[in-house]
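Good morning C.,

I know you're traveling, so I'll keep this short. The sequence:
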Amino acid sequence: MGIDPTLKSAVDQDLSLKVLERGDVTFIPQNLYFYRRHAKGISQHTSKVKAKKNFAKVIFEAFKRRGITEINGKNVPENYAQPQEIFDLLNYQNNIPFRLIKKLK
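The tokens, ready to paste straight into the viewer:
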């Protein structure tokens, strides 16, 4: 369960998804580390596009590991091609009915 070195800007998300696949997690409501911001960090403007592309690839790989072939009635592609293809699969989460139902639960 190694981390793909080409996905440096999505390492945290990749690790989080893999941890969730191994077992239960618990939310700890306190800060346990400091987040360092700097000009070349992935959360800065110049790196955001690459980080978003890498995150889509991480999500795609999680779908494959988990055997997910369909999301909300749409097929997961066999091969990764474009980040937008992955984000389009998840777009249903932004719809008002979905968000209302989730909030009511």
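Safe travels,
E.
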